[in-house]
Amino acid sequence: MKLSPEEFKQAVFDLTRLIPSGRVSTYGAIAHCIGASGASRRVGWALNQCFGEIPPVPAHRVVNRLGLLTGAVHFPDDAPMARQLREEGIQVADNQVVGFDEVFWDPWEAGNG
DNA sequence: CATCTGACCTAGT
DNA sequence: AACTAGGCCAGAT
């Protein structure tokens, strides 16, 4: 299953929007869920375009494999990544999610659970 | 046009 | 378990 750039971006957005509050997901999980395992980089690239999208995409709920807020540097000053996470109850320390394994949410639960 | 980099992960040894 | 190599597409130089 191969997705077009538009479908890929949409898939990433839709899947990211499915991430429940107080939870976080990873690029690989999303990429793997949409059938783009290995293309994790594109997930970040797509999420980079999430700003200004309607409905808004909680890209702040997406972190890397280690729970590091690697994308925080690309977030707007009005909506810092770590801050939005804290707004949902997720604790962050040094650009790293606290209890990552506990707040980790697998996109697979989006349509299976 | 060619080369390197980037919100990263998976596979092989 | 630790290390090395490959993938994936687009943007920037």
Provide an overview of this structure:
It is a single chain. By secondary structure, the chain is mostly helical. It has one domain (5-108): Winged helix-like DNA-binding domain superfamily/Winged helix DNA-binding domain (Arc Repressor Mutant, subunit A, Orthogonal Bundle), CATH 1.10.10.10. Helix content is 35%, strand content 4%. A two-stranded parallel sheet has the order 1-2. The longest helix is centred in the N-terminal third of the chain and has 13 residues, at 5-17. The protein is globular, with a radius of gyration of 13 Å.
CATH homology superfamily: Winged helix-like DNA-binding domain superfamily/Winged helix DNA-binding domain
Shape: globular
Radius of gyration: 13 Å
CATH topology title: Arc Repressor Mutant, subunit A
- The side-by-side strand order for the widest beta sheet comes to 1-2
Alpha-carbon distance between the termini? Answer: 22 Å
- Largest sheet at a glance? 2 strands, parallel
The percentage of residues in β strands lies in under 5%
Number of domains: 1
Order of helices and strands: HEHHEHH
